[in-house]
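Can anyone check this?
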Amino acid sequence: MTAIYNAKLFIDDEIIEDKVLLFDKKIVDILDDLILSDSDKIELIDAKGAYVSAGFIDMHVHGSGGADVMDATLEALETLSTTLLQTGTTSFLATTMTMSTEAIDNALQNIQKHAKNVTGAKIVGIHLEGPFINATKHGAQDKHYVQTANFSLIEKYMSEVKMITIAPEVSGAEAFIKQMIKEYPHVILSIGHSDATYEESQKSFSWGISHATHLFNAMSPFHHRAPGIVGAVFDNAEVSCDIIADLVHTHPSILELVYKTKKDKLHIITDAMRAGCMICGEYDLGGQVVTVEEGKATLEDGTLAGSVLRLNEALLNMTKHTSMGKVEAVNAVTKIPAEKLGLKKGQLKKGYDADIVIFDENFKSLSSIVNGDIMMNSLAFSYTNGNKKQIF
């Protein structure tokens, strides 16, 4: 059993002080004080006034630490998993991209086989970003591997697949979406890498699309006479969306607009590639050369190629450049994605998974805890087996 005290706790959409967070594998309780008897054995973490929230969840991350999901090895997943702990991320969707059928199958098979073996942030599912997209909005995805939506590629992995980015206007997409909703309602269907019109987007929402991937990027533009996907997302209160808050993919004014419009339907993601948490230089993305300079990742033709954003940096950007407060920002990477994914995570509540992050005023991670295990810690902690010590 472990107790965190002297902390600013994110509880029920508020920041609460003078409480003790008690956890094991699950959140055990939140107490006004903690009195230890002679028989109690407990580890104590003094947060020293730092912030404590549920661990962050990244619904869209391809890689970090020099590794990528498409490497299709246990070593790559392990590197990604442990690297993300530095950013406060304790859960993530391993995100694939548009490559050959063989490469995608290898990556999916690898996740299915090894997801439970990683020792850092937990893989809570697969986000299939492509190949069921529109080749005209491929972005950094290789358009030569774009294909019509079909189940043959993914049917063996439907227990692991939690999210699919798809262009609903392309041939075969409507039937695929409707079948998915009927047979696999747990899977989030997201419009992205798409050139759908406003009207086509709204129609796809009626079929079952409920989310939008990296809003504004790799999609039809927002225009006053043709509002496109963005306009449709803004007009539908039930459709959620995610954004890359790196100040490269989206201007601060756009971040503010999306926050004000979508509120509790807004998810913050990284879309990080293997250069995440690495130095500048040349890297690989789906067989393409990516150059990273000054926090910007681009292909040789200048196309943005994912990001090198860290999730805790995204929170700092949102609170610094928009009117979003700390509670709302943290919710966008904890409570909101957890509820969307149907996970009993994302909140400091009794019975929820003990995925916890301790961070400072600027969201720098001080400690990351996964399933009650302290995975990364820069705070002093002590161990006691009683002596009637009282905290608070």
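Reply from J.R.: I decoded it. The chain has two domains: 2-53+349-391, 56-341.
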